[in-house]
Amino acid sequence: MEEEKLLSRKxxxxxxxxxxxxxxxxxxxxxxxxxxxxxxxxxAQYKQLVDLHHIExxxxxxxxxxxxxxxxxxxxxxxxxxxxxxxxxxxxxxxKQPNYLEKQRALATLGHTYLIWxxxxxxxxxxxxxxxxxxxxxxxxxxxxLSSINxxxxxxxxxxxxTNLGLVKEIKGQYNDAADLIKKSIGICKPHDIYEQLTRNxxxxxxxxxxxxxxxxxxxxxxxxxxVAKKVKSKVSLLSTALLAKSELLVRLTEYHGAKTILQKAYxxxxxxxxxxxxxxxxxxxxxxxxxxxxxxxxxxxxxKELKILYEKMGDAACIFQCYQKAVEYYTMMLEHAQKSGGxxxxxxxxxxxxxxxxxxxxxxxxxxxxxxxxLPSLD
Length: 380
Known about the structure:
It is found in: Nucleus. The protein has about 375 residues and is mainly α. It has 18 helices and no strands. Among the domains are: about 1-100, Serine Threonine Protein Phosphatase 5, Tetratricopeptide repeat (Alpha Horseshoe), CATH 1.25.40; about 300-380, Tetratricopeptide repeat domain (Serine Threonine Protein Phosphatase 5, Tetratricopeptide repeat, Alpha Horseshoe). It is elongated and about 80 Å long.
């Protein structure tokens, strides 16, 4: 409905040759499309704004380019995104009247873009991380020098920068340094009630704790994350992300009934997008299946054919959650019971194949070779 109104307003402005109203409509449409994740449409509106504006060295032009860069980042076209983010910074730097606030935003945006790019690719990862760190540190220096903005806004900027610097360290595997930086961000967020960033910080801390194997501390941080996320009423996706992340850890810990309870809470949240609800629903179905299958394993009579089927279901479900080590355990039990039940060659071949594929997914290529050597060919 809102899109139709804006498109109608844009058409009226075009018919009446009203440039100001046309630019306002393009700007509003671009913002709407960005919020909806319709990035290609947003780019089209932003680029029309560039054509209408004509001036290429003022702050309005700089902000348009920032918008284009953010849209390309949404499309995961990072080179294009960086090109426009750099234009944003370059224009800010040539202003006669220094604009340190916009300079900070431009530096932070460039740093964050390099960080996201590094997290999603292995190509030149270290170079991207170094650039991310440089821009973020430059942004931090500018932020600390700002004196003309209110303390809440400054605290929000600082907390985001420290979090992103922590994420750079995390990707590098420097977990202690990462934790120190994220804790620093938490220390800024808490007294200023910056709940959105605080939620993200607890989520990051939980992920760090998982990586170092401290699952109890990870769960504690997930619980803190969930509690704070409930205060961010406008962004239910933050709460759903926290609940989903905790449920996935519980699955990895084989606490399937606990994971089911968490996913049920997530599924009942109001305001979820269709895609979010579908994703949670699919995970919930898998966990319900794991709970039911686990219960059947407890009361199983010991029939090897039945046990083979049950362990296969558990292995398949564990793979969906990318719990490959646990899946290997289940598939190994599946193979053992298939052998004890006198399974035929085709059945055993499928068991070996599932094991080999799961070892491959887990990055254990020696075990892929060990499981298949002399087994799959002989069963053909």
